[in-house]
């Protein structure tokens, strides 16, 4: 096979492996949901319990828990336990910076 043919098929050193493609697409999927964006934005500077997040964002606790589970599986948020409460905070500076820049871009006139 010629080099040009391999490149046309996408077989070159710049190809992304399947795991990387999956992680990137899931990250963009996470950032493609308004509720998850609101939660991540809230967690930008502080940690909050599920109940606090639900109250502040006027969401049902079950909705917040579901979205936090999705974000935790992608390692975008983390939690710590204090008694019976879990307190969530962001866990990925890269994604948080990308979110902040995207919000700033959207607010740019």
From TrEMBL:
<dbReference type="InterPro" id="IPR036388">
    <property type="entry name" value="WH-like_DNA-bd_sf"/>
</dbReference>
<protein>
    <submittedName>
        <fullName>DNA-binding transcriptional ArsR family regulator</fullName>
    </submittedName>
</protein>
<dbReference type="InterPro" id="IPR051011">
    <property type="entry name" value="Metal_resp_trans_reg"/>
</dbReference>
<dbReference type="InterPro" id="IPR001845">
    <property type="entry name" value="HTH_ArsR_DNA-bd_dom"/>
</dbReference>
<dbReference type="InterPro" id="IPR011991">
    <property type="entry name" value="ArsR-like_HTH"/>
</dbReference>
<feature type="domain" description="HTH arsR-type">
    <location>
        <begin position="16"/>
        <end position="109"/>
    </location>
</feature>
<dbReference type="InterPro" id="IPR036390">
    <property type="entry name" value="WH_DNA-bd_sf"/>
</dbReference>
<dbReference type="GO" id="GO:0003677">
    <property type="term" value="F:DNA binding"/>
</dbReference>
<keyword id="KW-0805">Transcription regulation</keyword>
<keyword id="KW-0238">DNA-binding</keyword>
<dbReference type="Pfam" id="PF01022">
    <property type="entry name" value="HTH_5"/>
</dbReference>
<dbReference type="GO" id="GO:0003700">
    <property type="term" value="F:DNA-binding transcription factor activity"/>
</dbReference>
<keyword id="KW-0804">Transcription</keyword>
């Amino acid at each position: 096979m010629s080099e040009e043919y391999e490149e046309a098929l996408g077989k070159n050193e710049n190809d992304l492996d399947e795991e990387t493609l999956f992680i990137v697409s899931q990250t963009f999927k996470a950032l493609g949901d308004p509720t998850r964006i609101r939660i991540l934005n809230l967690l930008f500077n502080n940690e909050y319990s599920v109940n606090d997040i639900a109250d502040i964002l006027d969401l049902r606790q079950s909705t917040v828990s579901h979205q936090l589970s999705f974000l935790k599986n992608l390692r975008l948020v983390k939690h710590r336990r204090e008694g019976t409460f879990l307190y969530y905070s962001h866990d990925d500076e890269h994604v948080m910076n990308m979110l902040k820049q995207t919000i700033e871009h959207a607010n740019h006139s």
